[in-house]
């Protein structure tokens, strides 16, 4: 019996995926539930498990975009498993063929009078674009520069031109990266995005972490980091300024009485934004545990579409990479994103005296169509106040109870 394996739906609104990598070869014997491919959707990279045991026949190539429900491989369930699970005998021959092909391709063409000479049409194009023929590799007979070579060599707005000793490579963007690019451009073009800035004296949080971080970790198995303070400070500010916890849907403003906080984390496939659900109900321990869980899943490529769907507000921490200041881009359809940055000791005026304090710059990018300046500035000030006075505003003056110690 031959089983047709079709692309399952990774989540709502996703209509196609891209075959990022086949984990098996055509003709291999696979076991049921064995991961046979990695597929990219516009939100995440997922593994495709075999639906049955048998010999597999691949029906799509790596890089192909296939619709949800389309057949991507066949599995002959009547085939018997090979003894010892040995690899197909043809594999060494395939490697030898690849080596031979590479060696053949690497052989340069013999130089002649035509090498590096542009055809009349190519010469005209290069002259119009101000490109010297010596900067172009000809692909015509004996290395002659063809019209097509000249067209391809035309740089677009600062594009570098390759040549001898100047390597240029091209690689196809993954579906996830292409979708990220589309969303970023959409956010810039379709929102009235502005950014407001402030600075935060992190001394109170430094003092709390220095005093309680070891006890906290021993009790709960997670570190007392900055994300729990920032997340709870954001939750408090969202309750004070609900417009920041809203978004536009056509001609309507949609507001939420819950706080699903998206956190930007770096994964093997690029930036991912998993969501901390109902952050308003979480304690310091709850936030730190959820941040750790989501970060590990993103790092290991196990994050699911459902874990990244939704979100009412985003926190981005560029400070872990050394960023001093930035203007984060809104994560649509959300209306606001808070950017955290690195913490640097800076001289500041305290009660008329200059003191050295650990200072972090923070930035709030917001959609001015739905959030006014008063609300955006007020929101960021509320975050600043909570971070500079966490014992009173985030812990209700009971540190041990808040940290569950």
Quickly describe the structure:
The protein has 11 helices and 18 strands. The protein has 405 residues and is of the alpha+beta class.
The CATH fourth-level homologous superfamily of the largest domain: Chloramphenicol acetyltransferase-like domain
CATH architecture call of the largest domain: 2-Layer Sandwich
Please mark out the parts with pLDDT under 50 across 5 or more consecutive residues, or reply none: 86-107
Total DSSP helices: 11
Return the string of H and E elements.
EEEEEEEEHHHHEHHEEEEEHHEEEEHHH
Largest sheet: 8 strands, mixed
Helix fraction, binned, reads 25-40%
State the end-to-end distance. Answer: 60 Å
The computed structural class is: alpha+beta
Specify the overall morphology: globular
Q: Output the radius of gyration.
A: 28 Å
The domain count comes to 3
By CATH, the topology of the largest domain is Chloramphenicol Acetyltransferase
DSSP summary, beta strand count: 18
Q: How much strand?
A: 15-25%
What is the top-level CATH class of the largest domain?
Alpha Beta
Mean pLDDT: 83
Folded structure, characterized:
This protein has 405 residues and is an alpha+beta fold. The protein folds into three domains: 2-80, OB fold (Dihydrolipoamide Acetyltransferase, E2P) (Beta Barrel), CATH 2.40.50.100; 109-158, Dihydrolipoamide Transferase (Irregular); 177-402, Chloramphenicol acetyltransferase-like domain (Chloramphenicol Acetyltransferase), CATH 3.30.559.10. The chain is 31% helix and 25% strand. The protein has eleven helices and 18 strands. The protein has helices at residues 91-106, 120-129, 147-153, 175-190, 203-220, 226-240, 284-299, 305-308, 373-388, 390-393, 399-402; strands at 2-6, 16-22, 29-30, 35-40, 45-49, 54-58, 65-67, 71-76, 193-201, 246-249, 252-255, 261-267, 270-272, 275-276, 313-317, 336-340, 343-350, 353-367. Strands 9, 12, 13, 14, 15, 16, 17 and 18 form an eight-stranded mixed beta sheet that branches. β10 (246-249) and β11 (252-255) form a beta hairpin. α2 (120-129) runs parallel beside α3 (147-153), α6 crosses α7 (284-299) and α6 packs across α9 (373-388). The longest helix is centred in the middle third of the chain and has 18 residues, at 203-220. The protein is globular. The termini are far apart. Residues 86-107 have low confidence and may be disordered.
